[in-house]
Design a protein that fits this description.
about 30% strand, globular
Length: about 180
């Protein structure tokens, strides 16, 4: 039986291995990784697609400031390569967007395949006045308003705003004090 669950701490190693298979060894060099680095995903918005006891897919959302507007950054979305084209990515997307909206989030941005994400309403028109902190192909930088007009005033740089793990925060404070 395949089901979507909230990601658990014990899923991390399996999720990371899945992401390596899905995106290859250069996945950590992507601009979106800079925004996620050292941060925790948005609370209640990290999901796994599970088949039996195996992680078959993953979807996470992250808090960002999108040019002065609070938003979520979606990614990565990945499904076990052997399962691609069977609708499991769509299942994760629909579930994730519904939960994000139910939790009161108003906007989502991402870097991804425009034709794939267009089916949920993602468009370049919402990100035209935004700048990512690194190289991004403009046609792949997309936004979605979960509430109409949510990204209307968004202009400027996208920056990470989400929580950092407690250990990382303590280590930074210790380095500053030294």
């Amino acid at each position: 039986m395949i089901r979507i669950e909230t990601e658990k701490l014990f899923d991390v190693a399996e999720r990371e291995a899945l992401l390596d298979r899905a995106f290859g060894p250069t996945r950590h060099q992507k601009t979106c990784e800079r925004l996620r680095e050292g941060r925790l995903p948005a609370q209640e918005l990290a999901f796994v697609l599970r088949g039996g006891d195996r992680v078959l897919g993953t979807l996470r959302f992250w808090h960002v400031d999108a040019g002065g507007v609070p938003a979520l950054m979606l990614g990565p979305l990945a499904v076990e390569p052997m399962l691609k084209g069977q609708g499991f990515g769509s299942m994760l997307m629909e579930h994730g967007l519904l939960v994000a909206q139910a939790l009161g989030h108003k906007a989502v941005i991402l870097v991804g395949d425009a034709p794939y994400y267009a089916r949920w309403g993602f468009s370049q028109r919402h990100t035209r006045r935004l700048v990512m902190p690194g190289p991004v192909e403009n046609e792949r930088f997309l936004g979605l308003e979960l509430e109409q007009g949510a990204l209307a005033s968004a202009s400027g740089r996208v920056r990470a705003t989400g929580a950092v793990p407690l250990r990382a925060a303590v280590n930074r404070k210790l380095r500053k004090a030294a």
